[in-house]
Request: fold
Amino acid sequence: MKPGRQSKSFLYRNGLSLVFFTLFLVTLSAQALTGWNKHNQDLKDDNQPEIGIGTYLQSGHFISATFENFESEFLQMALYVLLTVSLRQIGSAESKSLDESEEVDREPSPGPDAPWAVRRGGWILKIYQHSLSIAFGILFFASWGLHLYGSWQNHNVEQSARSLPTDTVLGYLGQSEFWFETFQNWQSEFLSVFAIVFLTIYLRQKGSPESKPVDAPDMETGK
Reply:
């Protein structure tokens, strides 16, 4: 650890992750409460009994809505991590340099301060070299599966309330409803990545590591 780092407070050293995790908890709680009210209103409209908040948190309605969003975010990050390895965008702060070597491309050196996996070497290092994309990939597929499960459960609740036959998970997977939910989230994530890649060519935010310096030329690639 660099000298002086320990002199900074815990909040100072971890402020970015703490703020975003707190925002996540606040908005997830707000989603749960408003979703519970909305779901109970739907049940009431279908002449079905209302449910408690604990039951709602285990319902397909809540699981589907939550993991539908998680899924698209993890897909976005997995593809972003993988595609920025080899693809470039001239002028973007989010791209590697067009013709210069980058620190992230150098071979790992097992120094005393290197992570354990680097010092261990072998197959552990091989996995560790791709661990970020692997983690996002696992999170994506887990979220996709839970989105499917929740959406299927909620679909069958709605079918039962209307005295219609329920569907198997494979039968539901072949219907448009699930894929509509999926693609409406995916397209928004791809657009947001395009926006930050493209807008950082011409726009700046002083002090942000996601921006080029304010006086950098538009066609200067990388940070």
